[in-house]
Amino acid sequence: MYVEHSYEKRGPLPQWQSSCKHLFCPCYPEDGYDLANIDSKSLLLSMKKLQQPDGSQFRTPVTVTLGVFFLSAAPGVLFLSAAPEMAGVGSAVRRIYLAVYNWIVFAGWAQVLYYTILALWESGHEDVYGAVERPLQFAQTAAIMEILHGLVGLVRSPVSATLPQIGSRLFLTWGILWSFPEIRSNILVTSLVISWSITEIIRYSFFGMKEIFGFAPSWLLWLRYSTFMVLYPTGISSEVGLIFAALPHMMASQRYCLRLPNKWNFSYDYSYTSILALAVYIPGSPHMFKYMLSQCKKALSKSKTV
């Protein structure tokens, strides 16, 4: 078994290192440790009990490598961690996955913007939704993965900020635009998809470049943290307007509603859910705008410092 150890060599062995030598194995640290027959619980207990002459815990870290794992001890801390080789492989896999994910979704939003411009040029805003429906549904639904990324720690974005934004967009994509064809010719659909697509093209290309190259160009950084000042208000106002426009059709069609009497003795009105969603926009929109503004100041000030 390969064993690696590290000690500071500054004159005679301190008392805690002498204790370590005898507790772990009957050999001097430079010779390496044969831990094949050492009980793991005894090893952990021994490391916890190591003390300096004054009775305090030792300050010099002790690291013992067992195969591909590190058993480490520090002041009052004991943990088992993967070896650097394993961590390096995991980091590379993470970066490749996130790069592929970001560029695939980027391509989806680029299609949305392209087909929007094409539809506006050829026929007008009434036909925009029909031209972008499939790529819009794909690109926006793929954003569900971002919630999972935050939950498992693949990215540092807080789920509390990601969840409401993605949730509201999914509600618009599937619960409004897909569910109520009557509003698809509304001009707010055009302002919505333009605001969304430009925002996401910038965002996904920014993160895609960071995952591949480790950095993004300064102009892309500026776009990432500045364009929201225009695109966020236009996107939010379009979302709110489309929900309002869909309310009469919800009430008339009774789609997704459950009326009494029924075997569950329960009633549900989809229009109430939409009204509740509108109510959430009142405190939620300013909160998100302030959050993005703080992120903008932090990112741009950091770039100036660099």
UniProtKB/TrEMBL annotation:
Q: Which reaction does it catalyse?
A: a very-long-chain (3R)-3-hydroxyacyl-CoA = a very-long-chain (2E)-enoyl-CoA + H2O
Cell location: Endoplasmic reticulum membrane; Membrane
EC top class named in words: lyase
Among InterPro entries, the record links this protein to: Tyr_Pase-like_PTPLA
Q: Which domain of life is it from?
A: Eukaryota
| Listed pathway(s) | Lipid metabolism; fatty acid biosynthesis
Q: Name one GO biological process term.
A: very long-chain fatty acid biosynthetic process
Q: Does the UniProt entry include the keyword Thylakoid?
A: no
An annotated GO cellular component of this protein is:
endoplasmic reticulum membrane
Which molecular-function annotations from GO does this UniProt entry contain? Answer: very-long-chain (3R)-3-hydroxyacyl-CoA dehydratase activity
Supply the Pfam families for this chain.
Answer: PTPLA
**What EC number(s) does this enzyme carry?**
4.2.1.134
The record's family statement is: Belongs to the very long-chain fatty acids dehydratase HACD family.
Function comment: Catalyzes the third of the four reactions of the long-chain fatty acids elongation cycle. This endoplasmic reticulum-bound enzymatic process, allows the addition of two carbons to the chain of long- and very long-chain fatty acids/VLCFAs per cycle. This enzyme catalyzes the dehydration of the 3-hydroxyacyl-CoA intermediate into trans-2,3-enoyl-CoA, within each cycle of fatty acid elongation. Thereby, it participates to the production of VLCFAs of different chain lengths that are involved in multiple biological processes as precursors of membrane lipids and lipid mediators.
Please report the name of this protein according to its UniProt entry. Very-long-chain (3R)-3-hydroxyacyl-CoA dehydratase
Q: Species name for this entry?
A: Panicum virgatum
